[in-house]
Every structure is written in C-alpha cells, then in structure tokens.
Specification:
The complex is a heterodimer. Chain A is α/β, with parallel strands linked by helices. Helix content of chain A is 38%, strand content 15%. Chain A folds into 2 domains: 140 residues, Aspartate/ornithine carbamoyltransferase (Rossmann fold, 3-Layer(aba) Sandwich), CATH 3.40.50.1370; 151 residues, Rossmann fold (3-Layer(aba) Sandwich). In chain A, α1 packs across α11, α3 packs across α4 and α5 packs across α6. The relative contact order of chain A is 0.17. Chain B is α/β, with parallel strands linked by helices. In chain B, strands 1, 2, 3, 4, 5, 16, 17, 18 and 19 form a 9-stranded mixed β-sheet that branches. In chain B, α4 crosses α6, α6 packs parallel to α7 and α7 packs parallel to α9. Classes of the chains: A alpha/beta, B alpha/beta.
C-alpha cells in the first residue's frame, strides 16, 4: 500500500481487498465486550478538521482509540486557523508534534495532497471539497460485501448530485477497482461535463435502472442547488430522482439501499425507505469505525492483530 | 555615451554581421566593421540578434503590491528576458485609472531604466465595470497611454464595451479585453474538462472565453474599432479570431508562453505535486488540443503576438490549498526560451517570425514608437542577443523578479539572453544586469 490514502485510486485491487479483509477481522473484535487492541500504542493520530463533521470525526476518533493510538483533535473552528493561519503553518505545527498520521477534512479539493507535501506522517483524506472521500467508499464497499458477497459484477447505481459529491468520485473509482458495474443517475446539470470518461455508465432515467440494480446509493442533494439553476425545485427533483416506496418496489428483492448521510428525508430519500430493512444506513455508520481501524492499522503498520478471527 | 560594436551576430538567424550602436541608434550594419575609438566590442559569435522584445501584458504590481513585484524588480526581469519595453497592466492598488497613477508608473519605469514601461490604463473606474475611466486624460498624459484594459476582469457589460471601443478611436487607442464571461466562471478554478471533473475543481469552460471574444469581434466590427484579445487560451477562440480576421475586422490577439507549452493535466500530476497552485492561472491551462491550435495560430498569424502575462505573487499566496491560491505565473525571463522550445524547435517559426511576434507587432499594437524596428542603420538601438544553443535548468530562486511563482521549475529550457540594449545602452551584458 501507498503511505497515504488520499484518493480511492491510490488503492490497487489487492490493497482494497486487504483493507476489506482486515476490517472483517476487526469487526469480530468490535463485537467483544473489550473492544480495544494495543496495536497502535504510542502512535499519534491527529484529526485535522477544517469543516464541521462530527460524525466523521467521531468515527475516526473511535477507530484510532480502539487501536490504542493517542488521538489529538484539531478543529479549525476557534483555532488560529480561523484567524488566518495557513494550511502550511498548521502542517508545520503537526510536523513538529510528530504526528504519525493526519486525518484531514477540508473544504478545498486537493488540500490533503498539499498537506502530504509538508508533513512526513501518513495522510488520510476524510473528505476534501468536491474531490474524494475514500474511507466512505471503503465502508460502502464493506457494507455491500457483507450484504451481497463479492462485488465482482455487482451492479451499483449511484443517484444524485455527482458533480459536487466526493462520495461519488471515490465510490466510482473503488467500485471499478473491485469489479462492480457502476451506473450514475442524475439530472445532466449535476454530472461533470466530462463524466463520459469515467469508468461507469450514465443514465438520466432512474426508473429504467432500478430493476437492474443490486445496490442503490442515494447522494445528499442540497436544496440550495436549485438557486443556481441545477434543478427547478426540490419537488421536481424528488419526483424525478428521489427514492420513494414505489421505486423501492421496482428494485430486485435482494437489492439494498445506501446513503452516506446526512440525509434529506423527503428530498432524495423517503423516510420509510431510509428506515426499511433494505437500508444499510445504520450499518454504514458501524462499518465506518471498522474500516477506519483497518486503514489506520495498515497505513501505520501496527503490530500483529491479536484475537482476530484468524 | 559609449559606443558598442557587436561582432558576428546572426541577425534574425541569418548570416553573421556586425552592428555598431552609437548615439542611441544603430549607426551601421555590415560585415567587418571596425570599432571606433572608445567603443566596446561585444563578441556575438553564435548569437542571434533580435529587436528588443516588447511585452503587451506585464503585471509590475506597483503601486500597491510591492511585496510581489516593483517596477524596479519587474523591469530587471524584463531586461534579462530580452525585453526593451513592457506594458504595465492597470490592476494595481490604486488602479491605474487616472492620469496621476499612469504617470507615476511611467516615471518609476524611467527611473529604473531597465526597459521602457508603458502603462496600460483601466477601461473602467476601479476595474469595477460600471463607468468609463478618464481614458482621454490617460492618453494625453506624459505616459501617453494607448492600450486600455481591465485585465484580471472582463468588461462584460456589452454597452460599456461598445462605448470603450468607440471612445478610444479619438486617440488611436485599443481595448485589450480579458475575455471571461463572469457568470460562467463563478468560483472557477481550472479548465473545465476531464481533469477538473476528476479533481473536483470548479470548471472554467472554454465557452466563457469564446462567447466574449465572439461578441467583442462583432462589436468592434460594428463600430469600426480596434480590438485586442488578451491571452487567448482555447482552440475555439482561435477559430473565432480567424473568422473575424477573414472579414477584415481590426482584431489582434495574444497568446502567453505558458499556454503554448503547459496543459491542465499538470494540475493532476506533475513532478511538483498534485493540486500545486504553481499551475493556477487565469485563463487556465487547457488541453493538448488547445496548445496545438494555439501554436498553429501563432505560426499562421491568426494570433499576432506572444505576451507574457507575467503575474508575480508572493510565496504565501501560492503555498496554499488550490482554491485559496492566487492565479498567475511569472514569465518575463522564460518567455523567449519557451517560445524557442514551442515554436522554433518544432519548426513552426523562424527567428524572423519570433521577432515579428514578440517585438514588431506588439510595438505596433501598442503604438509604441522606437521599438520593434528592423535591425538596420538608423533604427533606435533596442535589441537583444540570444544564445540559442544554451540550455538552462529553471531555478525559481535565480529569478530577478521579486516572486518565485514559475511553473517551469526544474525544466530544462533552450536559449539564453546574453545581452540587451536599450537605445544603445546595455541593460544586460554577459547574461547579467549591466
């Protein structure tokens, strides 16, 4: 594996499968009453969050702590960063503190790449602008595999604001690596103009794609996008691209519904769909901790896993 | 004033000849000239002599951003790049939108003495795109402004653009348009295409440039005015300009060295790292197809001139995440080497063609007398000597500019300016400031 996890494209098929398999072992640990492993004892993981994202930060924090790493949470809000300190100065501070891994969430696409130029530790991208969110894609793949088995040939439909979605970019890359067949469904305004060069199919017709889907992943769509003419209204968006009970009924019986959260219930997904047994949304949160443990463990080269499901 | 005898220079790449510079002019050109008493001799064997280069598009940043560049440092870089005149863009602080500011910049250039500084006047007050600046006052000032531009911003209002084009006819001025439709480029970060889609950076579509160029060509034709298009960056823009010229309309265009060489995939992968804002520039780097179209257009004359768009920025404005970084690259010292690489070594242009596009034509567009004249007896002694066989690895720290934001770091570029003369006085000798 590479030293950093910045893009899902950093992972070979073997790398991705190793992470998923490692996460499977760690999931066994998570079911024990004492969830903690000593493997990253004495290592320092910094959570560097320039955007509010309590869920992702807690997920990484729990993952690092279960591996016994020292965790430093560095929130940009209220710190010197909001007073004009540059990303570079923050990086130099982290470097001076000797961080072994830096988990970064940033509003600017590419910020983790820049950080990797300035610090020696491993960089884990926890979401950068509208670029990527590779651990989300890994936990999505992990959740799919637990429900459906190996992903080769599985048909995954990703619906919504692909243009602004880091989740979609990482999922398209990782799922292609894992051999799944991805179809993106969105109004044309919410697809990049060059999306034809991506390793996936494109459709504007959700109803036509649903019966052929093993997985339907709904992306969050911000209502404010209609103000920039990406779509006329929330109602029209919901009518054409929202996943409601009728559309759920058009999916094959085994097919599952996913959402990276946070959801707009009633917009891209109906509440009863989100809460149905077909939905993996709660599992995705649980699996998030597990997959992030696997990533930190593999990037930081922790000691042998003890007590896993060998 | 010392006379200089330049021995054995290849004028525009032709047969070796000697040039005698005396009294600010080229006193004689010929083979086997002898040095008059007291004259210095410059051995120019193997060097190409070109008329002093003229840049239509330079950001000298003074007044206001002296941390990035000053007239002194910027014109040093210009002289080292072979330039004897530069046009200083108006987006300073305060904006060069009054006779007072343009005269200040002009005077700073005189005092520095490394090359002539011709201020560009703003088209609109404060570059705000609302009211015309006092174009006539700037034209009549000591700075004798003839080129007007809101560069950095587009004069997007069609009525204002029309009036500006009409108004400057009274003093033979030209509007140099930064063609960028503002609504299509809100928060735009890089060329809209496959790379921007993958990188999740907001796209700057080619159509935002092409739509404005098409409109402006039609406006210029309608009112019978001169239009100059700044930093053309797309194949589509080339087609529109070619069409406008075919109608006989008075449209000229420039291309930057970086748009002749670099492409948008450098944002994704380069030896300088992904998302490195050293490649962030406006208009953005485009695709290989655009680069090929721009080279062909410069070769066939559709694009008239090379202009540097030298845009210095301090380190802290570039060592950031991509979205927060300033747009622009320095380019005065690397302009001629990049043109040699992209145009001469590809066989698209010869040295005479380069002289036309980097000296004679920009001087004519800027209505700048004394520059761009042929290297013959009686012309003002503005010229530069280039060693085309030299190879230099670009080192940002070696730049005479105050800023270091060159995209060519580590690249080996051909050609080196050995000497530059401004009205017979050396500004550069043996590759160093004289």
């Amino acid at each position: 594996m590479k030293r950093h996890l910045i893009s899902a494209a950093d992972l070979s098929r073997d790398d991705a499968l190793l992470i998923l398999d490692t996460a499977e072992e760690l999931a066994q640990v998570s079911q024990r009453s004492i969830k903690k492993l000593p493997t990253l004892r004495g290592r320092t993981v910094v959570n560097l969050f320039f955007e509010d994202s309590t869920r992702t930060r807690i997920s990484f924090e729990a993952a690092a702590k279960r591996l016994s790493a020292d965790v430093i949470n560095f929130s940009a809000k209220g710190s010197s960063v909001s007073k004009g300190e540059s990303l570079k100065d923050t990086a130099l501070t982290l470097q001076a503190m000797g961080a072994d891994a830096v988990v970064i969430r940033h509003g600017a696409s590419g910020a983790p790449h820049r950080l990797a130029e300035w610090v020696d530790g491993s960089i884990v991208n926890a979401g950068d602008g509208t670029h990527e969110h590779p651990t989300q894609a890994l936990l999505d793949a992990f959740s799919m595999r637990r429900r459906l088995g190996p992903l080769d040939g599985r048909r995954v439909t990703i619906v919504g604001d692909v243009l602004h979605s880091r989740v979609a970019r990482s999922n398209v890359l990782l799922l292609a690596t894992l051999g799944a067949e991805v179809t993106l469904v969105a109004p044309p305004t919410l697809l990049p103009v060059s999306v034809g060069s991506w390793p996936c199919e494109i459709s504007y017709d959700l109803d036509a794609v649903l019966p052929k889907s093993d997985v339907v992943m709904m992306l969050r769509v911000q209502r404010e996008r209609m103000n920039a003419a990406f779509f006329p209204s929330a109602r029209e968006y919901s009518r054409r691209y929202g996943l409601d009970r009728d559309r759920l009924g058009r999916m094959p019986d085994h097919a599952v519904v996913m959402h990276p959260g946070p959801m707009n219930r009633g917009m891209e997904i109906a509440a009863e769909v989100a809460d149905s047994p077909r939905s993996t949304i709660v599992e995705q949160v649980t699996n998030g901790v597990t997959i992030r443990m696997a990533v930190l463990y593999l990037l930081l080269g922790g000691a042998e896993l003890e007590g896993g499901a060998q | 004033m010392t006379a200089y005898l330049i021995k054995g220079a290849s004028i525009l790449g032709g047969d070796p000849a000697d040039l005698l510079l005396s009294g600010g002019v080229i006193a004689a050109v010929g083979v086997g000239l002898t040095a008059p008493a007291g004259a210095e001799t410059v051995d120019a064997e193997g060097l190409v002599a070109l008329p002093g280069l003229v840049d239509l598009h330079t950001h000298l940043r003074e007044p206001g951003r002296e941390d990035a560049e000053t007239v002194e440092t910027g014109t040093r870089a210009a002289a080292l790049g072979g330039f004897t005149a530069v046009h200083a863009m108006a987006n300073t602080s305060p904006v060069a939108d009054t006779a007072g500011v343009v005269e200040q910049v002009w005077r700073l250039g005189q005092e520095a003495g490394h090359c002539d500084v011709r201020p560009v006047g703003a088209v609109t007050v404060g570059l705000a795109g609302e009211r015309l600046a006092e174009l006539g006052a700037m034209a009549d000032s000591a700075a004798r402004v003839r080129v007007f531009s809101d560069d950095g911003k587009c004069v997007s209002d069609a009525v204002l653009m029309r009036r500006a084009l009409e108004y400057v006819k009274a003093f033979d001025g030209v509007i140099a348009q930064h063609a960028q439709e503002p609504r299509l480029t809100e928060d735009a970060q890089m060329n809209e295409g496959a790379v921007s889609g993958r990188l999740g950076l907001t796209g700057w579509p080619a159509v935002a440039e092409e739509a404005i160029i098409a409109r402006d060509c039609l406006l210029a034709a309608h009112v019978g005015s001169r239009l100059h298009v700044c930093h053309v960056s797309t194949a589509g823009s080339v087609e529109i300009i070619r069409w406008a010229k075919s109608k006989g309309w008075n449209v000229t265009a420039e291309v930057t060295p970086h748009h002749l060489l670099l492409t948008d995939d450098l944002v994704e992968a380069s030896s300088l790292g992904a998302y490195n804002p050293i490649f962030k520039v406006n208009p953005p780097l485009r695709t290989r197809e655009d680069v090929e179209a721009l080279r062909a257009a410069l070769a066939d004359g559709t694009i008239d001139v090379v202009a540097t768009d030298h845009a210095p920025h301090p380190v802290e404005d570039k060592e950031t995440e991509w979205g927060a970084a300033a747009m622009g690259m320095i380019g005065l010292e690397t302009a001629l080497p990049v043109v040699q690489l992209a145009m001469i070594e590809t066989g698209l242009l010869d040295w005479a063609g380069v002289a036309e596009r980097m000296s004679a034509t920009p001087a004519r567009i800027g209505r700048l007398s004394g520059h761009g004249a042929p290297l013959q007896s009686g012309s003002a002694a503005n010229l530069t000597l280039v060693d085309p066989a030299a190879r230099t690895v670009v080192d940002p720290r070696a730049s005479a500019s105050k800023s270091r934001n060159t995209p060519y770091e580590g690249l080996t570029l051909p050609g080196k300016v050995v000497a530059t003369f401004l009205r017979g006085r050396p500004t550069v000798l043996e590759g160093k400031l004289a």
